[in-house]
Specification:
This protein has 2 domains: 11-205 and 326-393, Rossmann fold; 224-239 and 244-315, formyl-coa transferase, domain 3, CATH 3.30.1540.10. It is built from 17 helices and 13 strands. It starts with 10 loop residues before the first strand and ends with a helix. The chain has a 6-stranded parallel beta sheet with strand order 5-2-1-6-7-8, with helices on both faces. Strands 9-10-11 form a 3-stranded antiparallel beta sheet, with helices on one face. A two-stranded antiparallel sheet has the order 3-4. The chain is elongated and about 85 Å long. β3 and β4 form a beta hairpin. The protein is α/β, with parallel strands linked by helices. α1 (20-30) crosses α7.
Length: 396
């Protein structure tokens, strides 16, 4: 008998858009939650490039395993229907700017009266009670205000944005974790609660190295070559004869092995390099010794020697190489689904592997309003005539 999915039986109302919210609810859907995506006609997400046969690939990736209904939340009847859905659901997730849900008449204080067990998760740039709550927020601004940009890039160049949307993805994961935590808490208390996740908070608190270094020294850590680690060196990218590799060396014993490997054991006794702090402070000089060693080797040769000596080493892949890598294949990180319009498309797989209740990509992303009939005539038990009237009046 096949095991149930971990979140099977949990119903989530998804009022999210763009990236952080949809990514969060995707994680829940992958683990078995019934996620009902509430959409308006012409939503940006469905137009995001690239397109496959007119369908957004971006939308397909983020909304697999979900259901879609259309609902106009600016219509009085639409608000009433949202409340009816809330009464039959476990979780509401939204990522509007603070205050928008209240203006629509569906804020947490209202919905918890409809369903005291509801878990209401809100993702926003600054959080619900920041002086900056009403500012627009994006991945870029979250990286800027959290210190991530200041730590990224060449030390002699400008601050740089991290190469992927950490400002959206990290809070999405925090929110999914928080929702599951709140579900566990509700088992004990019988009541729901509101979850307030800030993009900027999430990034600030994902930097324990920067936090501890700043608190101890009273100074902000400076950018290092190629984004080198602030408390370890070498922890950086180096160019071999044919390609770039990453070398990660952490702690005195590993550094001693590296010094032997590059035929410079005397570095271990050099006052400039004898401690981790010294190696970081004198990283430019130490880097030259390592660069000289790797410059005579191919990437494959260097990585083999590093790994054989218990030192961290890896190829520096571009994303095409990543998707073709053994890791992706071995860990089943690309899944194929069949979309009713786009046909066969590949989407990212499931990161955590559960032994008993593994998540899976079971269904393609829904067409707009694909599940209107199922939800309105089934779950909410409206008649076909009422649904047609809602369509005519612009409610759905």
């Amino acid at each position: 008998m096949k095991n149930k999915l971990a979140l099977e039986g949990t119903r989530v109302l998804d009022l999210t858009h763009v990236l952080s919210g949809p990514y969060c609810t995707m994680l829940l859907a992958d683990m078995g939650a019934e996620v009902i995506k509430i959409e308006k006609h012409g939503e940006y997400d469905r137009k995001a490039i690239p397109l496959i046969k007119g369908e957004s690939y971006f939308y397909m990736v983020l909304n697999r395993n979900k259901k879609s209904i259309t609902l106009n939340l600016k219509h009085e009847k639409g608000v009433e229907i949202l409340k009816q859905l809330t009464a039959k659901s476990d979780v509401v997730v939204e990522n509007f700017r603070p205050g928008v849900m209240e203006k629509l008449g569906i804020g947490y204080d209202i919905l918890k009266k409809v369903n005291p067990k509801i878990i209401f998760a809100s993702i926003s740039g600054y959080g619900q009670n920041s002086r900056y709550s009403n500012r627009a927020a994006y991945d870029l601004t979250a990286q800027a205000l959290s210190g991530v940009m200041a730590m990224t890039g060449d030390p002699n160049g400008p601050p740089m944005r991290c190469g992927f949307d950490v400002g959206d993805i990290i809070p999405a994961i925090y929110t999914a974790f928080s929702i599951v935590t709140a579900i566990c808490a509700r088992m004990n208390t019988g009541v729901g609660q509101m979850i307030d996740v800030s993009m900027i908070d999430s990034l600030i608190l994902c930097q324990p190295d920067q936090f501890t270094t700043t608190k101890v020294t009273g100074k902000a850590p400076e950018r290092a070559e190629c984004g080198g680690h602030i408390v370890a060196f070498p922890y950086d990218a180096f160019q071999t004869r044919d390609d770039w590799i990453a070398i990660g060396c952490w702690g005195d014993p590993m550094f001693a092995r590296l010094a032997d490997l590059i035929k410079m054991p005397e570095l271990v006794e050099d006052p400039k390099f004898i401690t981790e702090e010294g190696r970081c402070a004198n990283r430019s000089e130490l880097r030259k010794f390592i660069e000289k060693w790797v410059s005579n080797l191919t990437a494959a040769e260097a990585i083999s020697l590093l790994l054989d000596n218990g030192i961290g080493g890896a190829e520096v892949y571009n994303y095409k190489q990543v998707l073709e890598s053994a890791q992706v294949k071995d860990r089943d990180l690309v899944k194929r689904m069949v979309h009713p319009v786009a046909g066969e498309v590949d989407v990212p797989g499931i990161a955590p592997k559960f032994s008993e209740t593994p998540g899976d990509v079971r269904k393609p992303s829904p067409l707009l309003g694909e599940h209107n009939k199922e939800i309105y005539t089934g779950l909410l038990q409206y008649s076909k005539e009422q649904v047609k009237k809602f369509e005519k009046e612009g409610v759905i």
